[in-house]
Model the fold of this input.
Amino acid sequence: MILFVRLFAIAALLLAAGAARAGDPDALWKIVHDRCVPGFLAAHDPAPCAEVVLPPGKGGGWVVLKDRDGASQYLVIPTEKITGIEDPAILAPDAPNFFAAAWVARSYFLGKIGQDLPRGDISLAINSPYGRSQNQLHIHVDCVAPAVAAALRDRLGSIGTTWAPLGTALDGHPYRAMRVDGADLAENPFRLLAGDPSVGPAGIRTHTLVVVAETFPDGHDGFVLLDDQVDVPLGDRASGEELQDHACAIAH
Done:
């Protein structure tokens, strides 16, 4: 009976995810592949993207695109076909650090807001396959939800350099956290999550990953990495975007 309930819950979650993607799960890929990259190569015009970055060599690029949701939200999207956090390509030896690219792309997000923000107000998020609508990797760049920013401020001093439970729920979900020092994201968050023995490269597919820039109580700049895992019985889709505020109330 318990097995039946679990299987039913999994089926319901997959059906709901499929319905959410029914519009066109490849819409972002088509924008990048069919419009932004060709326009940039032909005439140095990235439209409708804000920027196309193509490092020397084959592949490995990304674009910055204004999302249709929210006044200030931008997306960082690979120029290669990479489905999402579950795609082995993100852990390849020569894979770009897409989170580092998203951190650099905050300049577009801040430009839309029209002001600079404290580090603790800026976040980067990628959803699990169960909590997204598109089958092309995209990192959301936007404001942190005020309640999340406050919860993290209360916990900053206790967040260590290895994965551990945060100790307080965020948007009702039990996130884990770890600290990464440095003004920029030199370490790849995907690798840090996949390198956790409890997750591993194969297990990352059921996880979401959120990065919040912070200045820690010891005065060092760095980042808090947040991780949640799909929990079918509890209806947790591991959608880290839930920790962002696309109305950006924290900036007002």
